[in-house]
UniProtKB/TrEMBL annotation:
Gene3D superfamilies: Glycogen Phosphorylase B (3.40.50.2000)
Organism lineage: Bacteria, Bacillati, Actinomycetota, Actinomycetes, Kitasatosporales
Name recorded for this polypeptide: D-inositol 3-phosphate glycosyltransferase
Origin species: Streptomyces actuosus
Ranges for domain DUF3492: 14-275
Amino acid sequence: MHVHHGARRSSATRVTLLTEGTYPHSHGGVSVWCDQLVTGMPDLDFDVIAVTGTGHEPIAWDLPGHVTGVRSVPMWGDPPPGRPPRGRSRSRLADAYEMFLAALLDPRAETGFAPSLYTLAQAATEGLLSPFLRDDAAISVLTAVWNRPGLAVREAQPTLHDALTATALLEHALRPLAAPPPETGVAHAVSGGVAVLPGLAARERHGVPLLLTEHGVYLRERYLGYRTAPYRWPVKAVILGFFRLLAQESYRQAALVTPGNRYNRLWEEQGGADPASIRTVYNGVDPAAFPPAGPEPEALTLSWAGRVDPIKDLETLIRAFAIVRARRPDVRLRLFGGTPRGGEAYRERCEALAAELGQADAVTFEGRVEDIRDAYAAGNVVMLSSISEGFPFTLIEAMSCGRATVSTDVGGVREAVGDAGLVVPPRDPEAMAAAAVELLGDPARRRAMGEAARLRVIEQFTLRQTIDTFRGIYHELSRRDEQVPTRILVPAATVAGLGSLTG
């Protein structure tokens, strides 16, 4: 679905935001960040290619006039339109797909990933890829690759059901390749993974510079998520191989990588990004929009804000709260934030855990709050229990509001907090509880810590700094693009030695 919005300005720098599951169709930290960039730069024109669930999600943000178009790419809705390939094009696509799968499963064949990916991208543009992947031929290609001698995955004895599952997952993951890629300006992927696919295609076909910002480490989060996914190892080997090689290709092809913290930078360098192409840009908030929260609540309260999601590890927080309450029975835990579609089972699991631990009367799920500042004001201490984060907005917002915080040591949390909060290991209820009890019992320390936290935000993490930095990057990459007078782009299929799909 493509929604036209404002009018294009021929003189304005153009940025195409590439998103997945976030802006402009949902709320959350990354969506807030996108909205901040867009609204903070009315002098630039923005388009959005948004990877969504079904394609029927409504736009959740008020889009300013300089957002000139939003294209929704559904991962799980109706497949892209197209037709099955025939004749030689079918054979060439099958060859490219075989090379692609071999790269995912055989370390000796990884050099074939990039050329085969761009061949698949061309097929997606021609409407051939999705029909091919929904055909029995794709299943046959995968089973043949799985059964090659010497492959470790062969020892797991993949089944036909495994092949059907893995092929279906790849078909969905590759759907963003069917979206028309940007032809000018800068393509800015605001996460790794499948959101980057149109940006890689834009760079390959049109020389459009690719900017990659990772708030969390996409590949690490896929590893965490698939650890408990209900798939057999052969399926996980295919999908995780895809995400790993896609991350490496994204890092190699990005003109600039802008992690939100130094922790992400380590992953990106390990994944093949040139250190010279990495520039850390911290998230920022407007201290005027998040002023001191005022008096603490009279009843001792721990508050948390975010989306109800396994990566936020609310189970550890609830277990920690049970330990806290054994020492301070008068304490409450208030959880603010919505439950994403599909996350209802996780919320129910958390509610059941609170009841099992005898804390149902003191743990409240408040849902989405109209003003997020109310969530921070509701706590004497603001908690963050995530197992993966980038540079979390909820943390620096709470700091700007002058609240003391207890956070898990993941991503850029320690960089954000410095000495102005307590940081504990992830998945450690005892350590989290000890930190919370320590602060709950010391009002003077909470007050001093909150004041230091707000000062730290004002000095280092303001929204104006973030917007000015990215405006400069956009102009820098646009100029770099304009300095290339002529682009001769060789079709990826030719590079791969596979010939034209339609020839």
